[in-house]
Design goal:
By secondary structure, the chain is mainly α. The chain contains 3 helices and 2 strands. Strands 1-2 form a two-stranded antiparallel sheet. Helix 1 packs across helix 3. The chain is globular and about 35 Å long. The N terminus is likely disordered.
Length: 121
Amino acid sequence: MSVAGKSADEYAAHTLNANSGSIGVSLCCMAGASESPFSAGRAPMTRAQWDAMTSVVADLCRRYGIAVTDRTVLSHAEVQPNLGIAQRGKWDFSRLAFDPSVVGAKACGDKMRAEVRAKLS
């Protein structure tokens, strides 16, 4: 079996040294994006994708009894500051093309967690 160019015996890490016991949720967007200066690339994340992602995360949290905190529900950009696990420059997502008022990994993560919590209520 092959998934994304990996054979069944190869391990496809999602986040450096933070995969065990974790669930990764991915969106297909931001091709060619850059953090600074910010460019959303040729396929910016849409509000519809964001809404679908927060719904999926809420469903996973409900299903597996995951409390929504900044250490349990976070973006790649928050792994190093929130968990203290060194990463290799992953910044997704620290900007939202559909809402330019939200800037920074913490602000984006806080927005995500607030919306996930609202969907759990």
